[in-house]
Amino acid sequence: MKRPAGAQMEHSYEGKVLIATPSLRDGVFTRAVVYMCAHRSDGAMGIVVNQRANDIRLSKLLVQLEIVKEAEAIRLPPEIDEIRVLRGGPVDTGRGFVLHSSDYVSNDSTVQIDDGVSLTATLDILRAIAHGEGPRRAVLALGCAGWGAGQLEGEILSNAWLTGPANADLLFGDDFAGKYDRALGLIGARAAHLSSEAGHA
């Protein structure tokens, strides 16, 4: 998916998280926390940050993508597999999106989203990571979440999502099971009190 590049929305959710309400209890967005990378007049794009791809390790992925040869994989920096691979959403699931700290910039392909958080969707960053020259903190998402013009605003009005602040723990932390409740906690809510019926975010 191409990152939306239209005009900035007056009430933009870029740099914030969407938190799925119980009305999204079926499907890929059940209890999802989505970090919003773009929210523009022509659409919105985000990364689900609390659904880990448990069966995929980054070191194996680097070999599959031919960034490193299989024989060289043993010489990869040991922290490579500390970078988690996520199921980032149902759109472009064969494409990788690296959400990372802003200490890494790849020429024209890195987009700064918020203070300290950037997105790079080219192989350059994976090559840098393989050589120990990547960002200090990162996650690799396979796929993303996407909305057409006006679609996200409609979903928020229909009580599908709550919105809240993002922090490094939500984006890069390892406690995937706890991220949903922590995201709710940042806006003073608890999952047990959410209703799938009424009320607007």
Low-confidence regions: 197-201
Mean pLDDT score: 89
CATH topology label: VC0467-like
Q: Which structural class do you get from the secondary structure elements?
A: alpha+beta
Number of strands: 9
Major β-sheet, in short?
A: 9 strands, mixed
Beta fraction of the residues? 25-35%
N-to-C CA distance: 27 Å
Task: Output the CATH homologous superfamily.
Answer: VC0467-like
In angstroms, what is the radius of gyration? Answer: 17 Å
Shape: globular
SSE succession = EEEHEEEEHEHEHH
Would you identify the CATH architecture?
3-Layer(aba) Sandwich
In which range does the helix fraction lie? 10-25%
Domains (count) = 1
Could you name the CATH class?
A: Alpha Beta
Contiguous helical run count: 5
For this entry, give a set of tags.
globular, single chain, disordered C terminus, 201 residues, 5 helices, alpha+beta, 9-stranded mixed beta sheet, VC0467-like
Folded structure, characterized:
By secondary structure, this protein is an alpha+beta fold. It has a single domain (16-193), classed as VC0467-like (3-Layer(aba) Sandwich), CATH 3.40.1740.10. Helices cover 17% and strands 29% of the residues. It contains 5 helices and 9 strands, in the order E-E-E-H-E-E-E-E-H-E-H-E-H-H. It has helices at 58-64, 123-130, 151-157, 168-172, 179-185; strands spanning 16-20, 33-40, 43-48, 85-87, 91-101, 110-114, 117-120, 138-148, 161-165. Strands 1, 2, 3, 4, 5, 6, 7, 8 and 9 form a 9-stranded mixed beta sheet that branches. The longest helix has 8 residues, at 123-130. The radius of gyration is 17 Å and the shape is globular. Residues 197-201 have low confidence and may be disordered.
